[in-house]
Amino acid sequence: MQERERTIGIKVRKTEFEEIEPLRALYRHEANCQIIRDSILRRGFADPYLIFVDGQVSGYAGVWNQHFNHRVMEFHALPQRPADTLPMFRELLAVSGATHIEAQTNMPIMNQLLYDFASNISVENILFEDGPATNVSCPGAVFGPREANEEGPEGNWVVRINEKLVAAGGVMDHYNPPYGDIYMRVIPEARQQGIGSYLVQELRHVSYEKGRRPAARCDHDNEASRRTLQQGGLLPCGRLLAGEVRA
User: Fold this and answer.
1) Is the pLDDT of residue 6 over 90?
2) Dist. CA 114–CA 22, nearest whole Å
3) Which domain holds residue 49?
4) Where are the beta strands (DSSP E) in 37-99?
């Protein structure tokens, strides 16, 4: 077990996911938005850490061990420890050896820590939330469930024109409840015809039927996806940022 203690009484200890799971319920509640890395700790792609102040559990964190190694991807300090947030995070960086930090701009505390401790910050994803009702029509398009062995882009729901599959997508539900992440893809020869926006609109209905609030994300430089998501009724609500820990 890796741990380090300073005279200010802060200790950071690597742990198991089960030990931080109750704290994550508070973190999810306070976030009040889709957490796009929500499953990473549970799936073992990041190492969990417990943070103590004067011997009491006061927060937790997650640091990627795959894909974005040594990047802090989650941090939460209990509400009664606001004055200890900066030293807690500083100690986490020292113990974990993290070299990078990521944060959603619609999660204020983590976003502030990113700017306090990192440089060379860049945008990786645009985040979307559900917007007003839409009435996107696409002549000849039929939306419905995918048939067995039907070829084409990945997704449980498809759009067909003249009985040909031209787009597919779905709603991923491994994100923090009540959010679901809409994804979709249109075959190249059917793009720029409004089919993608129509599919997004219909997947919003599917999401609500599953008891999920629609959300989505796309790469920050993918203007076509951003336009499609917005025309389908989703609105930008934040960014996923990442930066290098300052020496």
Assistant:
1) no
2) 24
3) 3-98
4) 46-53, 56-64, 71-77
CATH of the domain at 220: 3.40.630.30
Question: Are 91 and 133 found together in one domain?
Answer: no
Q: Choose the final residue of a domain: 98, 113, 148.
A: 98
Task: Take residue 141 and report the two structure tokens written for it.
Answer: 């398009």
- Report CA-CA distances (Å) from 123 to 33, 217, 218, 224, 227: 18, 12, 11, 17, 18
Q: 8 pLDDT band (50/70/90 cuts)?
A: low
Q: What is the pLDDT of residues 224-237, one digit of tens each?
A: 999 999 999 999 99
- Our count of domains for the chain comes to 2
Instruction: Compute the chain's Rg from CA coordinates.
Output: 21
Residue 28 has pLDDT above 50, yes or no: yes
| Phi, psi (deg, nearest 5) at residue 5 | -135, 140
The HSE-up count of residue 187 (CA atoms within 13 Å, CB side) is 13
- 140 and 192: one domain? yes
pLDDT tens digit sequence for 141-161 = 999 999 998 999 999 999 999
**Domain boundary, last residue among 98, 118, 150:** 98
Report the distance separating Cα 22 and Cα 96, nearest Å: 21
235's enclosing H/E stretch is strand 234-245
Neighbouring-strand partners of residue 52: 11, 57
What's the mean per-residue pLDDT of the chain?
Answer: 94
Sign of CA dihedral 229, 113, 50, 3: positive
| Cα 119 from chain centroid (whole Å) | 21
The length of the chain, given as a count of residues: 247
Tokens standing for residue 148: 């067995």
205 pLDDT higher than 50: yes
